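Suppose you are handed only these lines of text.
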Amino acid sequence: MDQNEVIIRVGGAAGDGVQSAGLIIGKVFSRNGLHVQTYNYYQSIIRGGQSWYQIRASHNRVKSQGDGLDILIALNKDAIERHTNPKINEGGASPLDGIAVYDTALGDFTKYEKIKYCGLPLGEIAQKYSRNTLLKNTVAIGAVFGYLSLDFETLAGVIRDQFGGKGEIAELNVKAAKEGYDTFVTKYGKSSKALNPEEKRFYLISGGETAGMGAVRAGLKAYFGYPMTPASSIIHYLAAHSRKFDVFVKITEDEISAINMAIGANYAGIRAMTGSSGGGFALMTEAVGMAAEMEIPLVVYEAQRAGPSTGLPTKTEQGDLLQIIGASQGDFPKAVFSPRNVEEVYYMAGEALNLAEKYQMPVFLMVDLYLAEHYETVEKFDFTPDIVRPPFAKGDEKDYRRYAYTETGVSMRALPGTPNLMHNEDSDEHDEKGDVVSDAVTDPEIRRKIMEKRMKKLETYIKELPPTPSYLMEDAEYAVVQWGSTQGAVEEAVDILRSKGLKVGVIEVNRPFPVNQDIRDLVRGKKKVIFVENNYTGQLRRLISSEIGVTGDIITKYDGESFYPGALATQIEEKIRK
Amino acid sequence: MDQNEVIIRVGGAAGDGVQSAGLIIGKVFSRNGLHVQTYNYYQSIIRGGQSWYQIRASHNRVKSQGDGLDILIALNKDAIERHTNPKINEGGASPLDGIAVYDTALGDFTKYEKIKYCGLPLGEIAQKYSRNTLLKNTVAIGAVFGYLSLDFETLAGVIRDQFGGKGEIAELNVKAAKEGYDTFVTKYGKSSKALNPEEKRFYLISGGETAGMGAVRAGLKAYFGYPMTPASSIIHYLAAHSRKFDVFVKITEDEISAINMAIGANYAGIRAMTGSSGGGFALMTEAVGMAAEMEIPLVVYEAQRAGPSTGLPTKTEQGDLLQIIGASQGDFPKAVFSPRNVEEVYYMAGEALNLAEKYQMPVFLMVDLYLAEHYETVEKFDFTPDIVRPPFAKGDEKDYRRYAYTETGVSMRALPGTPNLMHNEDSDEHDEKGDVVSDAVTDPEIRRKIMEKRMKKLETYIKELPPTPSYLMEDAEYAVVQWGSTQGAVEEAVDILRSKGLKVGVIEVNRPFPVNQDIRDLVRGKKKVIFVENNYTGQLRRLISSEIGVTGDIITKYDGESFYPGALATQIEEKIRK
Amino acid sequence: MVTMNDFKGSVKADWCPGCGNYAQLTAIPMALAQLGIKPENTVIVSGIGCSSNMPEYVKAYGFHGIHGRSLPVASAIKWSNPELTVIAYGGDGDGYNEGTQHFYHSARRNPDITYIVSDNQIFGLTTGQASPTSMLGMKTKTTPDGNIEPPINPLSMALSAGATFVAREFSGDVKHMVETIRRAISHKGFAIVDVFSPCVTYNKDNTFDFFRKRVYHLEDEKHDTSDQMAAFKKAAEWGDRIPIGIFYENNDPTYESRDEVLQTPLIKQPVKKLEESDLEEFL
Amino acid sequence: MVTMNDFKGSVKADWCPGCGNYAQLTAIPMALAQLGIKPENTVIVSGIGCSSNMPEYVKAYGFHGIHGRSLPVASAIKWSNPELTVIAYGGDGDGYNEGTQHFYHSARRNPDITYIVSDNQIFGLTTGQASPTSMLGMKTKTTPDGNIEPPINPLSMALSAGATFVAREFSGDVKHMVETIRRAISHKGFAIVDVFSPCVTYNKDNTFDFFRKRVYHLEDEKHDTSDQMAAFKKAAEWGDRIPIGIFYENNDPTYESRDEVLQTPLIKQPVKKLEESDLEEFL
Ligand SMILES: Cc1ncc(C[n+]2csc(CCOP(=O)(O)OP(=O)(O)O)c2C)c(N)n1
Ligand SMILES: Cc1ncc(C[n+]2csc(CCOP(=O)(O)OP(=O)(O)O)c2C)c(N)n1
Ligand code: SF4
Ligand code: SF4
Ligand SMILES: [Mg+2]
Ligand SMILES: [Mg+2]
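From them, the structure of the protein bound to magnesium ion can be written out as follows.
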């Protein structure tokens, strides 16, 4: 067990405060300069059921929720039975192999070997301070930090922030935590973990939030959406900061309205986005084609969850790639981004807005539930505004043609309000001027040319594609191909394999469409190519095979949970040895 | 020029009666036992513009609208200028190389060599009988049949049917036609064409209509839709025959309602369908996933037109394949059919209904504007009811589980109204009984199993896939791969190449998904594989490469028109010689 | 005899303790039992939302579809098999946002189904965003500075569409609700019952208390349920006194009664055998 | 000075001769010109349908989008750049079928845009199918035995949603229409003008003649446009006498006037520069 690292899990029911307890714990670490990753396991239920929140903290960079479990805070009996039982593995999560903190009032439950059961009268302690039943969580958190002997003051600070400053409630919580801290140490002593404050501090932030921030940095002025898990975190973030960031946030009657509004706003000349999860995005697909045909910039934030249909609304999956590739009838240029981590979401949100406007085409910023909702530590962000806006026609252009044929396929836009350049933008096929060619006379020749003009934008963009990122590929004999949020688990799995002497590297596809030809070079000569995907059919593999003919073995996971590095390493090794 | 064949084109403006004139001409041939194919070139406009209708008739089987143009009926000046000008080629259609029939009142127009201009006082003649300006079309039709010296009585019969029996209007038309017939012969003589009545008669019918009939044969009881070209022809056909066939036809507020109704009706136990074109189908995609997750049979008729977006609403394209493959988030079983001709639409409509019910999954019946709207001769249909309904649970089953794990992946349905078997069908992920697993406790293990159960249906179906049809593949050195409505033009192009000694065959993909592995065998050892597609990016090629790694050269056409055999033969030959 | 117990499902409802939906989970089976309708002939159709979980908890045929689409599904089930009693159930977001168009057109179309909306004036399942019936000024996750969009009035909406049965109930008055739901189910045609069904977790404004203080029974004030204009006026009442009960009712023919093909239940119709003569027109 | 001619587009309208839409092609530019609104500051947004081809024929900024979606597009354009005059135009199928939900929610939301519906009670462009305003009994391609679905009343619908300006006009009365459209455009908020605009090709029932015999001007009968109940009553009038003109008008605040961020036009707002302090909350 790594003494520089700890994995803590808070287990309970919805409504038990699992998530806020988890976040407090995470923040204590991040404020102390430790790297943190969290994992949120919850159900589509408001109260009850079974949920848990895992925090992995380390002095070294951590990239996933990790394997193993050092400390469990069990908020109910189900949680203690479940997370200590070596036979139960929630989609790959490790059972406890350390201490269990729980309220002695829980009563009897099955006990397992090797686990240190550290019952405390959590409720009793809590009641000394307040009758709010959630206070016992604070006591338990205090206990955990006592065990880890981590500076109480940081914890006190986080608690105060969480409970609204220096008021009475905050102080009660601080006191309760302190009693939990002290009582634990008195009763059970301290851990041998060597987790100490560092000189720096990290921010603990989720992908939904960095998507919002990154977009604001790139000049986002309006977001239109209809709530849907896990695409709501960006809405909540932007709505809460609407006035601060001067971003107009509009919740619409449905997703169809949302995307049409986003297109209208972009048409008018501001930067606007929309977003949803798979089911809501399905409703948006018709308008995606409209944006493409009318050459109006559009960024869609698509946060995947486990399908098909309503599926597992609070579970993660990478199952929407082909939906996005196939969105809307006909052929048209588009780009798909799949940022690999919370930080990359920030930068790619801006890149998406710039790209959409540069090429006047739809750009998809794909994340998944895991990436949109889990928290990661980030050290700093680049705040320099990242806004590249192509010029607009001003009104003195001679012979202005909205869809002029050009070298790049890109034609200059004239915004409504510009003198002299009045024209029509049309979802019907049109000529260079924007006049419809499907009414009186369809000229097949013009149709052919305007199709080619639009598709040329994609050809132009392909030439500018940044290289596909990779990890340890220089000397790799085996290539693992991943996309999006699985980066962390895959890299950690590869680290494990490297430590066993297997030369494995990772090709990290963060811009899945158009498919970068350089993937061909990256796989060349490899003994084996193995795709790792959080879906059933291997959608990235299908796409890459479709576009550039590269294929390989596949490891999939479709139980609603994300990959765990240890288990994944074993699977990759099996494929290699096969 | 083939003396057993004639190609006639009627050109005019929308509202000029181009289409009905064309249909009369076609029927005269089909009633005389000649093979006919028609081509309808029109715009998204109710009156005016430029449209034309082409009829190809032959004693031999014809498979496409063909190359060349023997007879033009020009209903306005634009038509005569356009169709006689050797430089104008409407997406591949040949200019006139024969006689032009027109109203001498048209006045002056450019004349070209080699064309025989046969002006007649069409309007003048017509006015003798009625003031209805459309009557002059009838005169022109008469003239054409005079020229071809084809039996006037058949023409009279068709006219009577078209104009509602033996009434006054019908008789006026017959008389006007007769005068056109005689006047032409007197003035210009007869053609050398050897077109004579045969002993048989054909039906002249479109794909939209055979889709409706085929579905009725397979027990269709309800159709839910929202009009959209070219998916309206099936609606119009079924609505007109609703009482005769006892099919409930419901036009809904939008496509979303239509597909949800179709799913509801199938759930209740009847056979119901929905349909649309690409844009309307985009709106349906969310519910496709619901049907898949809830395992409710569903057939969607998808009639493609040229996109993206509104695009060319009255033009053909095969641009929706990837939209269908990607429809709705997540992975689930489905099947896609792409019948190759009007007759096959009839049989595949029934097959789709049977398959959807057998596997309780969405099945897509894809056509395109060309197939949905153009007319072909068909000799006869098999009327034996084609209904394979799997058994439903009756109510005395013990331990009934709606989604029981089985060998095939298929579980027995219990329809509402069945005693004792009350259960819940859910778009949320569920267990064998149908109980939701995403509320209280998500069991990743159950999720994994139920995903596998559903996907197993596809594995089972794949084993039953009929072989991919082909044409002249036995000794072929080159393989052309086509799908859907391009069959005719492709086969004729191949005939041309064969006549030049090139051993070309055709792989005809009429069930594009799941991709049949036998395509691998079919292409094995071929010198070249060439995909022919009526779209920009080669969507079938992308799909086949994605699923089974087979790829090849590509010939595309994306100007809104379908392929013409002559031009296509040249293109294929170029690819071969390259 | 059918009893409420016959409708008791095997899955325990997992709404928050105190949630308004529990009242309907009592009232709907009670009304069905009173009418002697068997579970096997009952279909409950829903969309997505806390409320939409209803079919999971009732022993009957359940169709828990996608967000906003219960009405088209419910209508088609009824048209396919008119012997079934079809009840659509869902939330205000489900019915008045995502499903707006289906609600409006179902109301004018008049299929013989019952639509019960759990109107908690909030999105519950997605953890508390403004819904189309949220009051002006209400603070939610999507309206942190207070809702600025005037709420719609589902009753006026239904009335304007020509709905033939328009009612409102309150989860705090189950007895009254049972009576209205019973009449809604008995009504031949589209019956909408909008139910104030407090979300105790996310809506701190429109609580049980809020309504208890305000609601009164329409029938106590001699309201004429056949007078559409009176119904419009009553529907507009909002403030210290809020009416519940049946606002409007008429006997306009159902959609299915006007359609020739539906005169025989589709599910009972034999398959049409095609004949040579069916091709005649293509000759 | 702006004249009607400034709005004359280079593409000739290709509606059928006699189509009702020509009247609006005259009336809209006339109203705009009278108000001194420049073509460059005008955006005409439409969906798909014969009527929706309008933006192709007017010299202004034109947004000819997809079927049913003109209102969300129009609203967002207005919110992004309030200096533009935004007019949404389309058919009854476009607005009251495919776009039902947007119509309803726009009416309650009250963005400052004008919505003119060419209500020909039929689907024109798709060659004659029943629309949501087709009369009972009407024979069309989709209702060969006669329409059995009671038509909706767009005016009652808008009123029930809380629309702040509700009017109806007739293509056979251009002068009157210009006046109403002028007032609709001037109205601060969502203004709906439903126009009887006969489809001479596919609707043989609701012809110019049909309406000429029936329509009368509301203002001639001392109708009180501030009385919502009176408006409901007038909207329900259908038969030998059919009213046109302004049914209802009020001064409720627009959506944009209630939203803090929109107080400065979005298009003029500088980009927000992020700072270290914006990350504070994640510490
Ligand atoms: C197409 C689609 N959009 C959004 C969602 C997310 N979603 C689920 S429930 C819901 C709203 C719930 O509110 P309501 O219908 O009022 O039900 P309640 O939970 O309040 O009972 C939303 C937006 C979804 N499932 N599908
Ligand atoms: C999503 C979608 N569904 C259907 C259509 C086909 N469509 C085009 S116009 C139209 C209806 C036209 O009726 P209306 O809006 O009343 O306009 P009109 O032609 O009568 O002016 C339909 C159904 C479409 N273009 N897009
Ligand atoms: S969140 Fe609200 S609506 Fe949902 S179960 Fe809880 S109380 Fe009921
Ligand atoms: S079909 Fe009707 S609505 Fe369309 S242009 Fe012709 S008259 Fe006008
Ligand atoms: Mg609600
Ligand atoms: Mg219309």
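What can we learn from it? Residues 470-576 of chain B form a domain with the Rossmann fold fold (CATH 3.40.50.920). Residues D 49, 91-93, 120, 122-124, 131 surround magnesium ion (ligand 6) (CB under 6 Å).
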